[in-house]
Records
---
Amino acid sequence: VNSILLSCLRSMDQVKGVLTLQGEALTQADINLKTAKSNQVMHFTFRDDKHWKLQQIQDARNHVNQALQLLSGRDESYHFKTGAEVNKLMDAVMLQLTRARNRLTTPAAMTLPELATSGLMKMFTPPMPGDVMVNFYINLSKLCLTVYQLHAMQPNTTKNFRPSGSSVLHNPGAMFELNNAKFEVSQVHKVECVVPWLNNTLVFFTISLQLCQQLKDKISVFSSFWNYRPF
Ligand SMILES: *[C@@H]1O[C@H](CO)[C@@H](O)[C@H](O)[C@H]1NC(C)=O
Ligand SMILES: *[C@@H]1O[C@H](CO)[C@@H](O)[C@H](O)[C@H]1NC(C)=O
Ligand SMILES: *[C@@H]1O[C@H](CO)[C@@H](O)[C@H](O)[C@H]1NC(C)=O
């Protein structure tokens, strides 16, 4: 997982912005939100002193490093003695590569209170108003930004309050309680942009896993010869 500077710009009616992804960290964010309520455009940036680490990329990189350590754990002159020994190494490497890939293809599900109290809400200047929440995640080769517009539910509301569970993406109508106040998601905006090096990374994971599998297949072909001893 390389460290490359990327700026992405996506424009939609409600959410526009520029994000800078440097390796695993979002180093800059410049977001314009148009709220349905006031039709005003609000402008937020990351505080100068803040970077937001994307846990998914960090985890993927850690798994790749573990795979590399497994591969470089032996001296260059080391000779594998059995096919089983190679298979065992390939299985361990493939496990790490699969985990790395899964981290990029499976964004974390979160509850709305978890989102509301996440450190991400403290990243912005000016601070996000209480009725707006944002989330960043990686989905395959895309960096996604979701913006939730909330409204406070009146204590005397006749609506049935049902808190929603964990989800990557919450729908309008989802409800949650925080500090004895009840909220409902009134609008959801999702914007996403392709990160080319993430796309390449996913392709490399697929190729690496295929190579490992091919090596295992070859060993299994040869071991059937080795096991066949006619004399
Ligand atoms: C992730 O990407 C897939 C494929 O483009 C899409 O079907 C899915 O809805 C996305 N999920 C989220 C949570 O963004
Ligand atoms: C709930 O109370 C608020 C003020 O406290 C009032 O404006 C609103 O009409 C009430 N709603 C219902 C459904 O009774
Ligand atoms: C993703 O990478 C593959 C292989 O490198 C390439 O063929 C494809 O066009 C890329 N897609 C995007 C959206 O960049």
---
Amino acid sequence: MFRDDILERYNAINNNINIIKQKYNIDYDINIIAVSKYSSIETIKEFLSLNIDLPLAESKAQSLRDRVGEINNFKDNVKWHFIGRIQSNKVKYIVKYSDLIQSVDSMDIAEIINKEANKNSKIQDILLQFNISNEEQKGGFDINNYMEVYENISKMSNISVRGLMGMAEYSDNSLVVEEEFEKLNTVYKNINLKYNNVLSILSMGMSSDYELAIKHGSNMVRIGSSFLGNS
Ligand SMILES: *Cc1c(COP(=O)(O)O)cnc(C)c1O
């Protein structure tokens, strides 16, 4: 994709978010994550040359590693998020290259990340991904055990739990989607109530549903197909 198209898409998303914030009386920032998983390296470079300064996000460890390598030669201080399923044998790369791992979804994976971060003398920022959609393939911790999950993982020495992430099901019924987002919003509020606002990130919403996510408390949206697209 060309620079001008990317800029146009960014402006459209930004305007849209401002309208949504007004509509729901929201006075805090909504952070946009530029999901680059469908995009070519050329498109990513065009985007970075606009100096818009948003984190990029990848969902495969191999792509993350390859792209960080290429982009490091192109631009400094680019932030990367990991948003995909985490395989234990790939944690090494994910910890090495991610500023924020958004998709931590099991105790075993959290323990492996903690060990790897320790080896790298790093405190790894993470989000806990919860399953809010009842769709097994979406991944995420069982939301019924949320306090236990939070308490166990927040004790790990080389992990800093910064917030929560969830994906709603793909549905034409906006009430279903809203209910799922509200579930995670409630969990976010409950943890913050009990632990004095320890969490600052509620990552919900993608190209097709970010308005509903913001309506239900999201302060981080992960936009792929309607931003950097798939070429
Ligand atoms: C791919 C992906 C996105 C972006 O999805 P779009 O619908 O293309 O905006 C956001 N979050 C996660 C976890 C993803 O895997």
